[in-house]
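Deliverable D5.2: sample structural annotation.
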Amino acid sequence: MIIDAHAHVYEYVRPYGPNGEGRAIGKGRVRWPDGKETPFFPERYGDYGFLPETLLGLMDEAGIEKAVLLQAPNYGFQNDFICETVRTYPDRFVGACAFDPYAGRALELFRHFTEVCKFHILKFEISEFWGLTGIHPDLSLDAPVFDAVWDHAQQTDTVVTIDTGVRNSGNWRLYPIARIKRRFPKLRFVIAHVLFPGDDGYDATRLEMLSEIADGNVFFDISNTISRPEPYPYLRHQNFLRDLCSRVGADHMMWGTDIPSVLFNHTCCELLNYLRDGGLFSGEELEWILGNTAKEAYRIP
């Protein structure tokens, strides 16, 4: 089974972050309060939103059986829409909830998502430019405001996916997660985008940070990490993943696309096949990375 462990759908794109609120204006573009416009996805895939049926078409073309639908403030929270999507296509999609932990009814919302929507994944996008740190500059995952969230996640076996964002932005660090794990030892974490490797001279630091937090209950999502301008199949990038695999094991690495924003630079088939075509991973390792790890980490039937 091939599983895209990191994909997005949204009825209408409606981001909110450090630049204020964004308004969808058609052709996959968003306008901000200062008048600037940002392309969110290629216009051939939608106008105001990126719909499940569009994603299913791409999945069918590439041979992807299931996708995990994650959320972030940069698209606007889409909990009700994703809940509806999973109910409509239960054999194809697994949903994750997301919310602002500083909201007055945050824990009540979380309980609703786990009990009514049956979400068993929680996504916290804490990046500065596109996530919660841009809204709450003093945010720290091990702050007291999160304690009830971690407790409920542990009690309900909810997997917590964390996107720290890129280097040189707030909360690009993993040591708060290590402290949380000591207090809530049964929590399962997924680190999205493996700290965004790149040509900045810090990949050795990234590998060390990821290795330090690795254990049986921490998994690594390698979606949207092809940042280097290089020809397919992105062998320089794959060398980083090969090194990471030797440290944490293929059974703790999961493939994903981060569709739809990545469709500006890659096709869905390219994102699926580059690991196969690079020749750096064995067949058994690819089975884990392309599906088995996500199935295990996210407890997908």
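Annotation notes: DSSP finds ten helices and 13 strands in the chain. The chain has a mean pLDDT of 96.
The annotation will be released with the project's public dataset once the embargo ends.
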